[in-house]
Amino acid sequence: MLVAFILVAIPCLARMQTMKLPVILLALILTTLISSGEPTPEPVRVLTSDKIEERKGLNYEVGQTTPFTGLVQKMYPNGKKEFDVNFKDGKEQGVATRWYENGKKELEANFKDGEQHGLETEWDENGKKMSESTYKDGKPDGVRTLWYENGKKAFEVNYKDGKKNVVSTEWYENGQKKKEDNYKNMMSYKLNKPNPYSVPLPIANKSGAGLHGMQTEWHENGKKASETNFKDGVQQGVQTSWDKNGKKSEMSSKEGAVTVTKWHANGVKESETNFKHWGLPPHGMYTKWHENGQKQSEQNYKDGKRHGVYTSWDENGKRTSGTMWENGVEVK
To answer: Are residues 174 and 105 in the same domain?
Structure first.
């Protein structure tokens, strides 16, 4: 705007000078034209962090009654910036930035009316990106991603459906997928100073919330480690697991009682163990099979102790032993 005024003023002044107008009058005309341009914006007020205080959710300059508008800064003892935060009417507004003492950027977040809104990015002290998140009105909205030091993805959680139902994925440092979870009614989490190499998990928001749907885990060699289905945080049906060599086992539950079944590498059933509840000692029948499918042994347990007849067979089905037990003691 000001430049346009000047461009117009110069030829006008030249014509006026040919008319022999007084120099003072020419100067007054030029001053009027320049002063009629856009007003100069007021300088941004800058305060150090010790000059600001919070009252009832709003930030004020110490001793003032009007919410603060401007920039708040804090410096390290070495004179380098620690953080910059912009405020408008007492609330964070725009970009907030934090630096490490070595001058490298640590965090950059966006705010709107005092709530995080937009992209948040974090870096380590060497300048490598650690995490990236998006927020909407103070809550996670969309994807949050964390990376290992080697640059490979470590963790990703996708907030959807009102930011309550989320899907999370973890990876090993070699890039192989480690785990995939589905959650229902979860709290959004915020890490003030996260360690992205220790993966955080969402937290249940209310009773009955938690894992909901299929949970899948993999070994570092890429082979599947387990599959478990959940509903409102409670395991449903059979959990299937595999060791690194592909040997299979299953855990099923019914009314609290648990049965664990394992298989030989050739696919033949290896053993079956019963429990009153998971985490308690065996209770009920424990059975083993040879790799050729012949039964190997059978023993009943009571609260973790042998109780009843123990019988064993060789690979040809011939009985090899039979003893009686009572509360863990063999009865002669």
So the answer is: no
> pTM (2 decimals)?
0.66
Tell me the three state secondary structure of residue 136: strand
Q: Yes or no: say if 68 and 86 are a contact pair by the CB < 8 Å rule.
A: no
**CB of 173 closer than 8 Å to CB of 124:** no
Residues 203 and 214 in one domain: yes
Give pLDDT tens digits for 222-242.
999 999 888 887 777 788 999
Q: Which helix (H) or strand (E) holds 164?
A: helix 161-164
The count of structural domains within the chain is 3
Which of 99, 121, 143 is at the close of a domain? 121
Distance CA 204, CA 57 (A): 27
Same domain, 154 and 257: no
The predicted-structure confidence for 152-162, as pLDDT tens digits, reads as follows 999 998 876 54
Residue 197 is predicted with a pLDDT of 35
Contact at 8 Å (CB) between 259 and 243? no
**Which residues, listed in sequence order, are joined to residue 107 by a DSSP beta bridge?**
98, 122
Nearest to 189 by CA among 146, 252, 235, 247: 146
- Domain assignment of residue 309, given as a range: 247-332
pLDDT digits (tens, 9 = 90+) for 280-331: 999 999 999 999 999 999 999 999 999 999 999 999 999 999 999 999 999 9
DSSP three-state, residue 172 = coil
